[in-house]
Amino acid sequence: MEAEKARLLALCALPAAVTVLVLVAWPIWLTFELSLHRVRLFDILRDRPLAFTTANYERLLGDARFWESLANTGIFVTGSVGLAILWGLGSALLLDRRFPCRAAVRLAVILPWAVPASIGSLVWMFLADGHLGLFNHLLLSIGLIAEPIAFLVHHQFAMPMVILAQAWHAYPFFTVMLLAALQAVPAELHDAARVDGATPLQRFRHITLPALRNTLVVTGFLSVLAAIRDVETILVMTGGGPGRATETLAVRIWNESFRFYDIGFGAAQGVVAFTLSLLLMGFALRRLMRSFWG
Amino acid sequence: MRRLARRAGMAMGITLLLCLALFPIYWMLITALRPKSVTMVWPPRLLPDPGELSLATITAVARDTPALGWAWNSLLIAVLTTLAVVLVATLAGYALSRAQGGAARGLGTVILVAKMLPSTLLVVPLYVMFHRAGLLGGPLTVVLANLAFAAPFATWMMKGFFDSIPPMIEEAALLDGCSHLGALRRVALPLAMPGIAAVALYAFIVSWNDFLFARAFLPGGADTTLTVGATQFLSETEMEWNRVMAVALLATLAVGALFLWLQRHFVSGLTRGHD
Fold first, then answer.
1. Does the keyword Transmembrane helix apply (chain B) (predicted)?
2. Which 3 state secondary structure label does DSSP give A38?
């Protein structure tokens, strides 16, 4: 009986094991291997033998662009995740209250989620356009600027613009998760605190925030990882430009591999990104494991 | 008085939230429905004249560009990915939920780590692997890549659903003479249907929305998906915003409709297992 059950469970796990092995583990191993070879895209396509080298890593250490892309990753990730958390928290707190048409409003607020990231980026691109964009029209008409600004080709405004677009796409995830966590807070807690004379701010600090902490940590962490790997928003809106103003590590890997065809050098940066994510995961894995195994 | 002020503040907050959420979607819709002569004019007009709205751009895009072919590719890839993800994740979620011991924990941890890995990292090595396997350029590549991306999270979701089904129900079926496979098929699977629906929706949305894999593995031009196709109307010389937004609208409508229809399942599926 027990043996039959074990066999069935092993069989059930098999497709997932094969998927992870072939489509995740093997590619990661291949990234390491490619990073240690001098390899251009054409070598792959013509099946040429590859020469072993550590030159990719040596080049990386002395490469100013690499450090720049790391800094850009930091700005993009903190900016977009921070904004998305604030946006999500604010909306969850508001949507948790009672008001007319609440269900419809909730649905409307999380609707950006249903828009594909690349499509949302296209819309923001149009809004921020220097010739026909609505933002320029609005800013001009309230007198905040004197001349239209081409936001996405301006080295100072490009990064805030892609951060805004990314946060617009990312915040509904926080809204949904935090709203679910808020609904689990017993109303009696708030009532009791109110009776004891706690101000709204005190109630937020001592009741709401502790109740949300676990959800905030898990969702925040997942979103940081998602933002590190995100490449669609930036690829669509700026391609990493102007110059390299929005070139994050993920975008750099893409550009190096598919625009300059230097697969080996791209892979070396892939190894760095992989190590970076793994380090981050190490911090949070225990906590996530606990929520996974219950 | 204070109550009134709080009410007003809340109304303002909600209005602001709604504007921020909906305005870009409104702008996409209105641009797709307006003629080029209106959208390419400065200053842009916020509200449309009722007479200028028409489906002309959308029908023109369907007629003159490969947009319908892109939509077909998107649909094919999304459906195949959904089937594969549901199969893999349901079985694995069941195994992880019911199994005890080191092997299950090991697989669970690997899946958890895989879920968090940067998909950007997978693009280049998968490109090389697909080339060596002679698959490059076909829709199967995008299906496999989406499977690798979506299966880990879907498995996590499914494990949460099976965890909420008491094993006692299956044990009762076993006592009644059911085999283990029978207990899975006749008892656990039907009870997990809401979870399977949520996972299917998740997989469909992820693969329909994919841009990166389709951009990397498909040749482009007529042979790509809606999300990538929409960007092809933008060039250095001309930005055809009407056409971009018409294709964008097509890409959004499918998932948007599904989302509106099934959001309750989806949201409950997502929030489970995160407590």
1. yes
2. strand
